[in-house]
Structure formats: structure tokens, C-alpha cells
User: Fold this.
Amino acid sequence: MKTDCIFCRIIAGTAPAEIIYKDEQVSAFLNLNPIAPVHVLIVPVKHIESVNTCEVGDEAVIGHLFTVARLLAVRYGIDQSGYRLIVNTGPDAGQSVFHLHLHLIGGRRISFLVE
Ligand code: 5GP
Ligand code: ZN
Assistant:
């Protein structure tokens, strides 16, 4: 837990968010500024800054992010219509929160680049 990290604080329950999924390894909550009808952030409970700091020991939790994405896609009824999973890394990708997260975006047609 990193006390100055907004996602760590959401996971710890000390910052507000609409949490829609939680297990020992992963938490998921609604994006504060959604760009589509479904826009969920799926995050490891462990504070990992970005893909740049992922380690071999993180592979299980990183894989689990995708399993949770699939479960939530089914829950939100977008598994057949389709969805996009995005991981932004660093300034050129526009990463703004430095706690690894998978964006699950769906419920509308998404152009190739999401601004
Ligand atoms: P990034 O650009 O780093 O990939 O995405 C970070 C995302 O986190 C943004 O889409 C932003 O809307 C979302 N976000 C930032 N702060 C908060 C917050 O306090 N609560 C929630 N629910 N989402 C947040
Ligand atoms: Zn964190």
C-alpha cells in the first residue's frame, strides 16, 4: 500500500469509488470519467507502478486481471458485442495514475485510437 497512490487508497477503502469486484489479488471499480457506457478499471491489489516495473513474480496477478476482465465483460453484457482492454504506460500513452490498471471499455463502437 502506497499512501499517496489514489488506487491504493481506493483498494484500502480510504478513498471513494464504486467497487464492483474484489478478491485477494484484484480490485475493479468504475472509472470516474468514463469514455463509454462500460468503463471499468481493473487493478492489482499490489502496488505496481506500470508495465515498466512488472516482475516475473507478478505474472500470476497480471494474468488474473484478464480473467476478471472476462468475468466483468459477461456481467455487463458486452462479451459478445465486444470491448477493448487498454494498459497505458508512460507519458506518450497518457498514463496518469501510476498504479498498473487495465481499462475495460465497451458498450459502444470504439474507434482505433481512444483519445
Ligand atoms: P490512465 O490514463 O493512467 O491509464 O488512466 C487513469 C484513469 O483513472 C483515468 O481514466 C481516470 O479517469 C481514472 N481515475 C483517476 N482518478 C480516479 C479516481 O479517484 N477514481 C476513479 N474511479 N477513477 C479515477
Ligand atoms: Zn498504488
User: Anything to note?
Assistant: The two ends are 30 Å apart (CA to CA). Residues 59-75 form the longest helix (17 residues).
